[in-house]
Structures are given as structure tokens and as C-alpha cells.
Amino acid sequence: MRPLQNFSSFLLLIFIIIICLKIYHIHAQFDIETDPDDEEDESVEDETPEEKAARKSIQEDSNLTVDKLIAKYGYPAEVHHVTTEDGYILTMHRIRRQGAQPFFLQHGLVDSSAGYVIMGPNISLAYLLSDYKYDVWLGNARGNRYSRNHTKLDPDGKKFWDFSWHEIGMYDLPAMIDYVLKTTGFKKIQYAGHSQGCTAFFVMCSRRPEYNKKVIMMQAMAPAVYATETEEHPYIRAISLYFRSLVGSSVTEMFNGEFRFLCRMTEETERLCIEAVFGIVGRNWDEFNRKMFPVILGHYPAGVAAKQVKHFIQVIKNGRFAPYSYSSNKNLAIYKEHIPPRYNLSLVTVPTYVYYSTNDLLCHPEDVEAMYKDLGNPIGKYLIPMPEFNHMDFLWAMNVRKLVYARMLRVLGKIKDHKKANNPASAVIVNSVQQSRERRRRR
Ligand SMILES: *[C@@H]1O[C@H](CO)[C@@H](O)[C@H](O)[C@H]1NC(C)=O
Ligand SMILES: *[C@@H]1O[C@H](CO)[C@@H](O)[C@H](O)[C@H]1NC(C)=O
Ligand SMILES: *[C@@H]1O[C@H](CO)[C@@H](O)[C@H](O)[C@H]1NC(C)=O
Ligand SMILES: *[C@@H]1O[C@H](CO)[C@@H](O)[C@H](O)[C@H]1NC(C)=O
């Protein structure tokens, strides 16, 4: 099984690189001066002792596991293991603050708990919440590098990988939430999620509504839930074509680190890799800290099941937020209907605050607004006041604290709100949403 999986992952990589080269070529023709740092010759011999120390520290960060990384920056780190009803053994990371309100953070697709810490104590959300006196718990979904274990199944076998974000919502989140409540003695957690961390949360609350009572508030960043507007995304087409091909249909595990060495080879391949990431999530050089790219590469991608990706593609293609669809007969056997019944978002009664952005290629503002209307208890939405803000900027942007987390702290009542509760730059944003709509229509 393994050689075939690796080989097909390799083919996918080649496939993606070809597309990137095309996109890169197009960009290069139109705007050559995109990156102001490009001209700087950073030869290693000229570096000062401080620069050398910084470079070493970055190398170290790219190599450390999440608990070691947290400890390196002087926060109390803990590792916990949680077993789900269906036998998956998950790892949780914790920045301990004994007796404080637990705050649960759940990562997105191909990510891990690292997403909330890799940018360091001056940027990343986990540290900020710890500084604001929360007991921070970081989840890891089944199948990523920290949760590749099971009481019975072999992670190198096919059966282990038969899951999507439906199971993450049905089993992983409930198991981890119960574990946190039991360990801390609290009755409720605070929750924030990014992308799939929201998707799985809404699955949980709609299918196991008793969990609504265990959450004080949900803060949803870039919630990938409705996705009718994502269909035009070039990569989505490529990936769905790939899955329809013979190789694609046999893949079980994906994105477990194949990219790393390629991206690290030269300045030029690094740049290509960043463009490839931008091609997926949206382009925003201004907020991207290129110095930190080695750290990002050290922690991404953290591994997913192919079925997770296929399930997202179904949501995009079918325009329905529903469980995984099999053949018509199998659907009938499992769901008693020919197509799986939708998740009912009105059953999500946790107060939910939503953060989204215009340049998020995976999570279009129109889709987020449609989802917002269907939620059982929406309490506010915030369009990030920067038109270029992309899907990963919610974790990686240099100014993410100012642009996103400050609002989060206000919603939590940790810092005082200004008189104007609504987004001051909303007029600008509405304009750019309209422009992007027009551009799409013209295409
Ligand atoms: C990263 O870790 C590996 C194995 O743990 C080690 O061989 C390598 O030297 C480390 N690299 C850096 C830059 O620390
Ligand atoms: C965080 O910012 C402070 C002050 O700006 C600086 O002294 C410190 O070195 C920074 N820490 C890290 C890990 O970058
Ligand atoms: C998987 O979990 C078992 C406990 O059931 C443990 O003994 C084993 O060390 C774990 N494997 C890894 C790779 O963490
Ligand atoms: C969703 O749940 C609400 C509240 O229980 C119910 O009124 C509504 O009929 C449900 N919708 C569907 C499509 O099942």
C-alpha cells in the first residue's frame, strides 16, 4: 500500500507544481516587483551575530514539536492523550493555567495544533489567550502527525484512513471537549476554530446537539462550510480531476510532508512554493513574513485523509453542506435516502461570532454570509478590514493581532469595545466584494 500512496502523492505534487509554474508565469509577466525583499542579497557570511541567532532560532522552531516549541518560549506546556469512541488516539497540547477558564482551539485542514503557535508569542493566538488568563487547549484531529494512532487500527493501513471531517465533528471534538471539562472541572469551554475547525464544530453541534451546552461561545475564523462560490478555484478543479483518475481513487493519506525538501532547495523554489500556497489560499505578500517560511514548512502540511479532501470537494460540487456521499445504493443503506441529508445549522445554538475576508479563495464572503443566516444563534460577523487578507492570514499575518484577535478579545469582553461596534472599514470592503463579484461574472 505504502509505495503506491507515496507514488500517487508524488504525482499530485508534480501536478500542482505544473499548475504553480503556470500561475507563477502569469504573475511574473504582469507584476514583476511583487516582493520588495527580492533584491536583497542575504549572504550568510555577512550576517551579524543577532541575525545568526535569529536564523538558528527559526531553524530550531521549524524542527520542534508543539509542546517543545511552547516550552521554548517560556510557557508551561503539557501533552495529553485522548481516545475517541471509535478508538483514535488524539494528542492535545495545553498551555496550562491552572484554575482558569479553558479555551479550546481547533485547527484547519492539513494543519495541526502548531497553527496556533508557530508565529511565536508576539503573534500567535494561543499565547495571546494565555496572556489573557485562559487555560489554552489545542486539539489535533485524527490523522495529523500528532494523532496518527489507534487502539486497534494500523495507521499505515487503509482502514485507519476511512474518515472525513464528519468523524472529526462526531467523535474527535466531543472526546476532546469532554476530556478538557473532566480534567479542569469546568462545565463549559470557550471555543475558536479556523476553517475545518469550524466545519467539524458545526457538524458536532448539529448532530450531537447536547454539545451546544458545553460551549460558552464559538469564534469561527474563515469557516469553510458553504462553498458554492469556491467552484471556480483552479486547484479545486485540478484536485477533483485527480481524484477521478485511477491513481487518485486509491489514495488514503495525503500531504504528509512531501513538499518540504523541494521548497527549501533554493530561493527560487521557496518563492514558487509560497506562490503555490497563495494560489490556494489567496495572495497577500504584504502580511506574509517570509523569514518565517521555514517554520511554516516545518509544520505544514501535517497530514490528512484523502476522504477529508474529497468530502470538501463534494460540498463544493454539490452545493450542499451534508455528510459524505457514496453511491446511491450505499447512501440508501447508510442514510435511508439517495443523497445524504444536510446538516441542520439551525441546531447550532452556541452563540457564534464569525470572522471572514474578501481575498479568502477557500471561503467566499457570500458563502459565509449565507451560512451566517442559517446558524441557530449568530451573534456577530466581522469582515477583516483589509481586502487582501487571505485564508491563512488568520494564523500567519504579521498584523493578525490588530486585524483579528483584538476584535476577538473585545467579543470575549477582555478589552473594552470602542463606541463603534461595527467594522469601521466596512464601506471599503463592501466595495471590494462587489468588485470581486463583477470580476467573477465577467470571467
Ligand atoms: C531537526 O531534527 C532532526 C532530527 O530530530 C535533526 O537531525 C536535525 O539536525 C534538526 N535540524 C535542525 C536545524 O535543528
Ligand atoms: C516580542 O516583542 C518584544 C518587544 O517588541 C521583543 O523584545 C521580543 O524579542 C519579541 N519576542 C519574539 C519571540 O519575537
Ligand atoms: C499509540 O498508542 C499506544 C497506546 O494504545 C501507545 O502504546 C503507543 O506508544 C502509541 N504509538 C505512538 C506512535 O504514539
Ligand atoms: C432544522 O431544525 C429545526 C429546529 O429543530 C427544524 O425546525 C427544521 O425543520 C429542521 N430543518 C430540517 C431541514 O430538518
Question: Can you put this structure into words, describing what you see?
Answer:
Helix content is 44%, strand content 12%. The chain has 443 residues and is an alpha/beta fold. The chain has a single domain (2-29, 65-442), classed as Rossmann fold (3-Layer(aba) Sandwich). The chain has an eight-stranded mixed sheet with strand order 1-2-4-3-5-6-9-10, sandwiched between helices. Strands 7-8 form a two-stranded antiparallel ribbon. Residues 1-5, 28-42 and 418-431 have low confidence and may be disordered. Bound molecules: 2-acetamido-2-deoxy-beta-D-glucopyranose (4 copies). One 2-acetamido-2-deoxy-beta-D-glucopyranose binds at residues 59-60, 63. Residues 1-28 form the signal peptide.
Summarize the structure.
With 443 residues, the protein is an alpha/beta fold. The protein has 17 helices and ten strands.
